[in-house]
Amino acid sequence: MPGNIVDRIDDRVKIRTVLVSVFNKTGLDVLVPGLVRINPDIRILSTGGTYGALEKMLGAQAKGRLIQVSDYTGQPETQGGLVKTLDFKIYLGLLTETYNPAHQDDLQRTGADPIDMAVVNLYPFAQVTANPGVTPEEARANIDIGGPCMVRASAKNYIRVASVTDPAEYDTVLRRLEELGGCLDLATRFFLAQEAFAMTARYEAAIARYFGQIDPRGMRDFYEIQNPEQGA
Which of 32, 69, 118, 146 has CA 20 to 30 A from 215's CA? Predict the structure, then answer.
C-alpha cells in the first residue's frame, strides 16, 4: 500500500508558514494582511508576480516575513516562470506528517519548514480556450503544472495543511482563524480539501475536453516544423 497510514493528528493547527502562489490575485489584499494581523509571526513564501503584489500590500510588514520561494529553495525561477515551486523542500513542507519521526528528521536534514497553508489558484485554461480562434499552442501555454501539484499535495495532507484555492473562501478562512486563535481545525481543513480536489478535477477535465476535440493530423499546421523528414 503506498504512502503512510496516519492514526494520530492535531485537530487544530497553528498557521505559521503560508505558501502563496496565485494567478488570480483577487482578495489577497484582504487575506494576507488578515493573516499577518491574526498571526504576527507568520512567514509567507511566494513566487514571481505574487511576491511583487504582496510586497506592495504589506509594505514595511514584508521585511523578515515575506520570502521569495527561490530564496527559500536556493533554486532560481526559470525563464517565463516555467519552474518555480517544483522543489523537494516545498513538497516536504506540504506533505510531512506531524507525528512521523522520519518526516521530522527529513525537515531537520534539509532545513525545510512545515507549510501549514497553501493559497494557490491556477492559470486560466478554461477562460483562454473559450476565446474564438485560440490555438493549441496558446492553450498549451496555459496549462498549469506547479499549481495543481501544490493544490493536490496540500489537499492530500488535510490532516495538517489548509489548501485554499478560491478567493471566495478567504473571508471564511480568516473568520475561522480569528475564532480559533490563529489555528484551523480539521473540519475546516477537510472542507477546503474537498473544494480543492473539485477544482483540480474541473481543471483537468477542461484540458482533456479541449485537446480531445483536435485532430492530431492537423497539429503540424500550428507550428513551423524544423525536421519534416523525421515526421513524415
Answer: 146
DSSP 194-216: HHHHHHHHHHHHHHHHHHHTS-G
pLDDT in tens, 128-171: 999 999 999 999 999 999 999 999 999 999 999 999 999 999 99
Three cell numbers at 192?
477546503
Residues 103-126 pLDDT 10s = 999 999 999 999 999 999 999 999
68: closest CA among 49, 41, 82, 86?
A: 49
Alpha carbon of 223 to those of 80, 167, 216, 226, 228: distances in Å? 20, 37, 13, 9, 11
C-alpha cell at 38: 491574526
